Amino acid sequence: MNRQLLTILIPMYNEEEVLDQLYLRLLQVVDEIPSYDFEFLFVDDGSKDRSLEMVQEMRTFDKRVSYISLSRNFGKEVAMMAGFDYAKGDALIIIDADLQDPPELIEEMIGFWEQGYDDVFAKRRHRKGETWLKKWTAKTFYQVLQKSSRMPIQENVGDFRLLDRRCVEALKQLRESQRYTKGMFDWIGYRKKEILYDRDERAAGKTKWNYLKLFDLAIEGILSFTTVPLRLSSILGLVISGASFLFLLYIVCKTIFFGESVDGYPSLVTVIVLLGGIQLIVIGIIGEYLGRIFIETKKRPLYFVDVYNDRKEENSGKREERSVRERVKSPL
Ligand code: UDP
Ligand code: MG
C-alpha cells in the first residue's frame, strides 16, 4: 500500500530565533507517527533575517524539508495560499513558526482525520500572554462578524488546523487578493472537528501584528464576507429621510398656525453638519467596496515565487540533525 504524505505548512517571516526549536519540536512529534510520510513546507514570506538560510541548512540533512521563498513580504494570508498551491500532501497542517501552536496536537488532529473529518481545527481555550484589550477586541470583532455575515465564523480559532486534500483544493480556488482565510475555512464547508488547546506565548521573537494591522484584518473580515454595511447605509438613509419628512410636516404646520420667526440658525448648522458627516461615512463604505472591486478586477497573481525547492526523495544523514539539537540549549 502507498504511504500517505502529510504536509506541515509553516509560513514564516523573520523567525530565525525560533526555527531551530520549532524544527526539533516537529521532529519529536513526527517521530511518534511512523505510519505517514511527512513534508515540512516552509513558506518564507520575504524574511529579512537568516530564516531562509536556516531552512536551507535543514534541507541539506532532512529530505522532508522543502521551501518556497516569496519575492517579497506578502503577509501571512498569501503565504498560506502559496503553501496550499505547492503542498503535496494528502492532508495539510498549518502551523505558526513561533510555537504558539503546540505541534504535539498534530497527532490528535491526524486521529480525527483518519476518522473521516476534513477540517480539524484547534480552538484556543485560553489566550495566554495576550492583553485584556486584545482579548476584548477579538471577542467584539467575532460577534460583529458573525451577526453581520450570518455565518458561524469560528471564534478563538486561528489558522492552526489540519485540512484534507479536498479542502486544500477548494481553498485554492478562492483566489481573491484581499484574503480573509479564517472566514474561508468556514465558507468552503466539509466535515469539521474542533479540538481545544491552550495557546502558548511566543517561544521567541516578536509578533508581526500590531493594532493597526489587526484593525485592518477585522475590516477585511467584514468587507470580504458581507455587504451588511451597505444595507445599514440604506437603512440609515431611510430612517433619516423618514424622520426629516415628519419634521417637515411639523414645521409646516407650526408655520401655518403659529407663524415663523427666523431663528434656529445653530440647529440648522448642526443638522447640515450631521447629515454631511453621515453622507461622507456612507460614501466611504461604498468606496471600500468599490476599492475591492477595483483590486479584484485587476486579477493580479497573488504572489511571486523567488525560489522553490522540492521535498527530496533521498536522505543524506542524521548527523547534522544532532548539531541542531545541540545548538538549541533551551529545554523543550
Ligand atoms: N507571518 C508571515 N508573514 C507575515 C507575518 C507573519 O508569514 O507577514 C507568519 C509568522 O512568521 C508566524 C505566523 O505568520 O509563523 C503568525 O505570525 P505572528 O506570530 O506574528 O502572529 P500572532 O501569533 O501574533 O497572531
Ligand atoms: Mg504568533
Automatic annotation (TrEMBL):
Domain Glycosyltransferase 2-like, chain residue ranges per copy: 7-169
Keyword Transmembrane: yes
Membrane topology note: Multi-pass membrane protein
Residues forming coiled coils: none
A Pfam family it matches: Glycos_transf_2
Segments crossing the lipid bilayer: 235-257, 269-290
Major localization listed first in the record, in broad terms: membrane
Record's keyword annotation contains Transferase: yes
Keywords assigned by UniProt, alphabetized: Cell membrane, Glycosyltransferase, Hydrolase, Membrane, Transferase, Transmembrane, Transmembrane helix
GO molecular function per UniProt: glycosyltransferase activity; hydrolase activity
A single GO cellular-component term on record: plasma membrane
InterPro entries with a match to the protein in the record: Glyco_trans_2-like, Glycosyltransferase_2, Nucleotide-diphossugar_trans
UniProt subcellular location: Cell membrane
Stated family: Belongs to the glycosyltransferase 2 family. GtrB subfamily.
Name of protein: Glycosyl hydrolase
Organism of derivation: Bacillus gobiensis
